[in-house]
Design brief:
The chain is of the alpha/beta class and 330 residues long. It is built from 13 helices and 14 strands. The chain has 2 domains: 171 residues, NAD(P)-binding Rossmann-like Domain (Rossmann fold); 151 residues, Dihydrodipicolinate Reductase, domain 2.
Length: 330
């Protein structure tokens, strides 16, 4: 008997949407049913093997029976906060909402919508928030009373780049997150310093302006942007579209979670988990797709509501059975 595949829809077809499509194609237990986008003509011209629809068409009654899980692939600044609760009323969903300070409030909205309509919605998943969140909790649990530090970069932040692109007069932007080496070395030395965001990272934003735009106004809007740039030393550099394409198309990133604490009679202990990524969006898509498998299984067993990676048994992310996991990975 053939095992039923998880039927998936994608909302949004940028870097994340393209990556999700690729990962699903390599996942034997999943099937991509449809792509929903604002750029219908452009995406239809690119995609020949999957049906493409306008985003509003996702709410046709027929899709509720044809799709098991929707993956929201838009940005955190303007797309997911609006799309998330709306789609949660119709589907189980996965998203990578990454505005850390707003996650508790977003969780409440998503949980209310998902519970009311019997769906499972996994929010704020990717490598941070998501995978790194899991590591922060694990490390703190193993070293109670210790202090956790997360450093990102050097690399391109998708969320911050998207936020910079939303500024009036900006044609394109890449925001690099750069960790401050002095802060890293203090933690690796077993110290537990009190560090502000500004003392841990700086931001470097490359911007392509629209013709006639005011560079000083663009700089001001970026540097003072709440929740994204205002708490960091931020440098804005204006470049041409050609230079952006030539030098800033790769989306590298990475980072590490460090925890410093003591055990026994004051013995210093440091734990570290790191990622080195050639292309930032692709590891995010890997986590999104794994969480799709978990959401499907949670709903099948009768669960409903919003979840984060902290709420999901890790085995539910895997394509392996429980028996295979115990045999191969324990």
């Amino acid at each position: 008997m053939t095992k039923k595949k998880i039927r998936i829809g994608i909302v949004g077809y940028g870097n994340i949407g393209r990556g999700v499509k690729t990962i699903i194609a390599n996942s034997k237990d999943m099937k991509l049913v449809a792509i929903f986008t604002r750029r219908l003509d452009q995406v239809e011209a690119e995609i020949k093997d999957i049906p493409v629809f306008k985003i509003e068409e996702a709410f046709w009654p027929s899709f509720r029976d044809e799709i098991d899980v929707i993956i929201l692939c838009g940005g955190s600044k303007e797309d997911i906060p609006i799309q998330g609760p709306r789609f949660a009323e119709h589907f189980s969903t996965i998203d990578s909402f990454d505005t850390h300070l707003d996650i508790p409030a977003y969780f409440k909205k998503m949980n209310a919508a998902a519970v009311s309509h019997g769906n499972v919605c996994v929010i704020s998943t990717g490598w941070d928030p998501g995978l790194f969140s899991l590591l922060r909790v694990l490390e703190e649990a193993l070293l109670p009373g210790s202090k956790s530090y997360t450093f990102w970069g050097r690399g391109v932040s998708q969320g911050h780049s998207d936020a910079a692109r939303k500024v009036a007069g900006v044609l394109d932007a890449r925001s690099y997150t750069i960790p401050i080496e002095e802060a890293i070395q203090q933690v690796r030395a077993g110290k537990s310093p009190k560090l502000s965001k500004r003392e841990m990272h700086k931001r470097l934003v490359y911007v392509v302006m629209k013709e006639g735009a005011d560079p000083e106004e663009i700089r001001k809007q970026i540097v003072e942007m709440p929740k994204y740039f205002d708490e960091y030393n931020t440098e804005v550099v204006f470049i041409s579209q050609e230079e952006m394409k030539e030098k800033h198309s790769a989306y590298p990133h990475g980072g590490f979670v460090l925890i410093s604490g003591v055990t026994g009679n004051g013995h210093k202990e440091v734990m570290e988990f790191s990622l080195k990524l050639e292309r930032n969006p692709e590891i995010t898509t890997c986590v999104l797709v794994a969480c799709t498998r978990a959401a499907y299984r949670l709903k099948k067993r009768g669960d409903k509501g919003a979840f984060t990676l902290l709420d999901i048994p890790i085995g539910l992310l895997s394509a392996h059975s429980d028996e295979e996991l115990r045999k191969q990975f324990m």
